Task: inverse folding
């Protein structure tokens, strides 16, 4: 029998970056379709511009600037573009969305070396850049179907208004907000697909959402004006952020303990911003801040090697 020596790894799976990204796109499809149904053709334009633009720019950078002639699109650009689109307001213009795409792909991703080497979630970097550059468009929200300008549940809570959306409206997706955050039901449905395909672990979302729920319950007990736990869970961008952006395998910790630390940190920062900050929402900032701590979290949460004995220093 002829034996051939090859380089490691010797144990391989049938998974590929392309197949994983395809599953993420499938998981985000229900929320994207609902965005088009509720917000109309302008939502479709933003989704197509961001998704196609991000994939095209990613291909151009890798194929021509990095001169990788054998490169085949792995759909990671499309995932970044779609996530960016789902984080946008309907008031954002298509050319402004393209600026966000450029920042997400060329700066937040390519500058660090491309897929797998970026420290921060590219879609969130693009969103925050647009929020700083075009604050009016990024904070102008529309009600579904009638497209009348309206405040989001988190903005209403921050302003202390008497108009409160019902939990049913927030769960089903008939509230103002960014294109992809309005329906908790469809986001959970998509996340269920990722769990079924074993693409993600539920630790970060559970820790993240659980921390938000606990802090909301504590502050709501002190003062009901702070909002109930379910209102905080369903009313803003928490579901989209916790399920699809905090779980990004590139910018999140590697160990289970690290996942717990990361999720709890995201939850605490989100609630601090929501309760005491100037912005009504804090999900994007919370995830980006915790992205910066991932190397440190990986270092302190690194599991012990089985059977290894720690050598004591004589010094």
Result:
């Amino acid at each position: 029998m002829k034996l051939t020596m090859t380089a490691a790894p010797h144990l391989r799976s049938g998974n590929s970056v392309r197949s994983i990204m395809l599953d993420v796109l499938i998981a985000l499809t229900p929320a994207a379709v609902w965005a088009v149904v509720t917000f109309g053709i302008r939502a479709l334009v933003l989704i197509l511009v961001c998704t196609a633009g991000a994939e095209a720019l990613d291909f151009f950078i890798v194929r021509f600037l990095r001169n990788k002639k054998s490169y085949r699109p792995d759909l990671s650009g499309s995932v970044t573009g779609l996530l960016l689109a789902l984080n946008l307001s309907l008031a954002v213009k298509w050319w402004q969305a393209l600026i966000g795409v450029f920042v997400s792909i060329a700066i937040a991703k390519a500058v660090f070396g491309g897929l797998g080497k970026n420290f921060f979630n590219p879609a969130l970097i693009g969103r925050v850049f647009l929020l700083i550059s075009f604050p009016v468009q990024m904070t102008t929200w529309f009600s579904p179907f009638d497209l009348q300008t309206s405040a989001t549940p988190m903005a209403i809570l921050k302003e202390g208004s008497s108009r409160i959306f019902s939990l049913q409206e927030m769960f089903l997706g008939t509230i103002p907000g960014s294109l992809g955050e309005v329906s908790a039901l469809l986001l959970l449905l998509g996340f269920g697909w990722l769990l079924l395909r074993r693409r993600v672990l539920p630790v970060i979302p559970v820790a993240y959402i659980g921390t938000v729920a606990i802090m909301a319950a504590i502050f709501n007990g002190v003062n009901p004006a702070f909002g109930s736990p379910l209102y905080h869970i369903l009313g803003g961008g928490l579901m989209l952020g916790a399920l699809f952006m905090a779980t990004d395998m590139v910018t999140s910790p590697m160990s289970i303990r690290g996942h717990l630390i990361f999720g709890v940190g995201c939850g605490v920062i989100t609630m601090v911003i929501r309760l005491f900050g100037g912005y009504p929402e804090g999900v994007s900032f919370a995830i980006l801040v915790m992205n910066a701590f991932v190397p440190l979290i990986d270092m302190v949460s690194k599991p012990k090697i089985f059977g290894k004995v720690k050598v004591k220093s004589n010094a």
